[in-house]
Amino acid sequence: MSKAKGSSTGDDTETLESRKNTTLSAIFGQNTPLAEEENKKPVKVPPPPMYVNVHTLTKGMVFGLSDLFFDNQPSMALVSNGAECVSISKKLFMEHASHAFVTRIREDIYPYPSEEELQQSMENQMVWDFHRRQVVTHVVQDIKCDPPPRNESHVTSRGSALGLI
Fold it and tell me: Which residues have a Cβ under 8 Å from the Cβ of 30 and sit 6 or more positions away?
C-alpha cells in the first residue's frame, strides 16, 4: 500500500514533528530532541583563510607567470581593488609571445617566497603586532595610573617664584 502526499498517518505526524523540531532548533536554538543530539557532537569549523600581501602590482606589471619560469611556486590569488585586469591564458601567451618579449618578462619576474616562508613571515608579523599592542597598552596604562609629577612653582606674596633666581 503506497501513501499519497497529504495523507495523515501516525508516521507522517512523527515526521512532521521531527521536521518542526529541526526547524525550531535551527531558528531558535531550543532544546528539542534533535538539538540535544546535535549538542553532543562537536562540530569543527575550519578557520577562515588568511591572505598575505606578497606584492603590490602597478600599471603595466604582469602576474601569474612566475610558475612558468621558476619551480615550486606557491598558489597565488590576485585581488583587484577596482583595477581593470586583462587575463590571458599562459598557453596562449607562450605560443604567441616573441623570444625577446619572453626574455624581457623573465628579467622582470622574480620567484615568490615558498609557502613555508610566507607562513613564517605571517607568524613573525602576528607576534610583532601582538607585542606592539601589549607595549602600547602597558605604556598607556602606566601613564593613566602614575601620571608624571607636575612641575609646580610656589609663588610668594610678592609674586616671585620660590627656588628660581
Answer: 24
Angle (CA) 13-17-20 rounded to 5° is: 140
List, in sequence order, the alpha helices (H) in 10-160: 10-28, 33-40, 66-69, 90-96, 99-108, 115-145
The pLDDT tens digits of the residues spanning 123-161 come to 999 999 999 999 999 999 888 887 666 666 555 555 445
Residue 161 β-bridge partners: 155
Cβ count within 10 A of residue 25:
19
Angle between helices 10-28 and 33-40 (to 10 degrees): 60
Q: Distance (Å, rounded) from C-alpha 138 to C-alpha 152?
A: 27
> Do the Cβ atoms of 111 and 66 come closer than 8 Å?
yes
pLDDT of 36-74, one tens digit each?
A: 555 567 788 888 877 788 888 888 888 888 888 888 888
Distance CA 120, CA 114 (A): 10
How do the domains of the chain map onto residue ranges? Answer: 50-112, 114-145
Cβ contact 32:91 at 8 Å: no
Residue type, 64: G
Task: List, in sequence order, every residue forming a beta bridge with 67; answer none if it has no partner.
Answer: none
